[in-house]
Design a protein that fits this description.
Rossmann fold, 4 helices, 4 strands, alpha/beta, single chain
Length: 91
């Protein structure tokens, strides 16, 4: 957590995006607690523990599936779907 806070203070990001897992947890937590606008992109139909915890600290939670308000609440939820590379749509 100390290293994450140091990275955020040195880098001074405009936005922090987390996708879950222990690798993004400390940095997203540090960013959110240091005033950096932050969001989670939850691509699964059932969120992991890291995203459930971080949802309390971020401004928005982008999800891929309906009915995710049971985990994150309605006020932060944005249904965006899953990001897909555009090459899959070129024929």
């Amino acid at each position: 957590m100390l290293k994450a806070r140091k990275i955020i203070k040195q880098f001074k990001p405009d936005l922090a995006i987390g996708t879950g897992g222990y690798a993004s947890g400390p940095l997203l937590f540090a960013a959110a607690n240091n005033g950096v606008p932050s969001l989670i992109q939850e691509q699964n139909s059932y969120p992991g523990i890291t995203n459930k915890i971080l949802a309390k600290y971020v401004q928005k939670v982008c999800v891929a599936y309906d009915n995710m308000e049971r985990f994150f609440g309605n006020e932060k939820l944005i249904i965006t779907g899953n990001p897909i590379r555009d090459r899959y749509f070129k024929f």
